[in-house]
Design brief:
single chain, mainly alpha
Length: 210
């Protein structure tokens, strides 16, 4: 699986545009601004990994933290996000404990694994509600933009989505681009052969990557 295939997979899972995907595909890089530098600190990278793990926890396959998603996210935010997207993302991360206190009455790191799952589910519902309202408000601009650019890879015109939507996209993108995500979560075939539409499938089988 290459970068484009990983982005396509995340877009299908999320049902929308992956923020920063075009720059990710181009391999663009730039210096971190002061507000983003904190993401590269070990304490913050570990926190990002814990939050990503709540979305993709370890089961019979490695979780997001073991796959290195916590280290992947800062690079993506630095290299592929606009200043406005970075500001929205950082505001969400900086206020993570405040939101956790509001919803769960505890700081995020004090939550149990089950509580963290409940927390990210609540964040996801909040993000979906926020994005739906924003989509309705910017519908005309988005339709105009879609005429000119490829719908899957275009950059979003207007305001960024909810910060947790971006975080979830980064988690899935990082996971499906990691060695563990490719070789453990998916059935990795180093040199795939021809397509076989009659290949036997059992319920619970992993998708292929190659």
């Amino acid at each position: 699986m290459n970068r484009r295939e990983a982005i396509q997979r995340v877009a299908m899972l999320m049902g929308g545009v992956v923020i920063g995907s075009s720059l990710f595909l181009e391999g663009c890089s730039r210096s971190a601004t002061k507000q983003v530098e904190v993401l590269f600190e070990a304490k913050t990278t570990d926190l990002l990994g814990d939050l990503a793990e709540a979305i993709l926890p370890k089961t019979s396959t490695p979780g997001a933290k073991e796959a290195g998603v916590g280290s992947f996210i800062p690079v993506m935010v630095r290299d592929c996000y606009t200043d406005e997207e970075q500001a929205v993302f950082m505001d969400g991360i900086n206020n993570l404990d405040k939101k956790s206190q509001e919803l769960m009455k505890k700081n995020f790191l004090d939550l149990s694994a089950e509580e963290r799952t409940s927390f990210v589910n609540l964040l996801d519902k909040e993000a979906n509600k926020f994005n739906k309202k924003q989509d309705e408000e910017t519908k005309a601009d988005r339709e105009k933009n879609a005429v000119k650019q490829n719908e899957l890879y275009r950059e979003v015109v207007g305001k960024p989505p909810h910060w947790f939507t971006m975080f979830k996209q980064l988690t899935l993108t990082g996971y499906f681009n990691s060695e563990l995500g490719l070789t453990k979560a998916l059935r990795y075939v180093k040199i795939p052969g021809k397509f076989d539409g009659n290949y036997p499938y059992k319920k619970g089988d992993k998708a292929f990557a190659g």
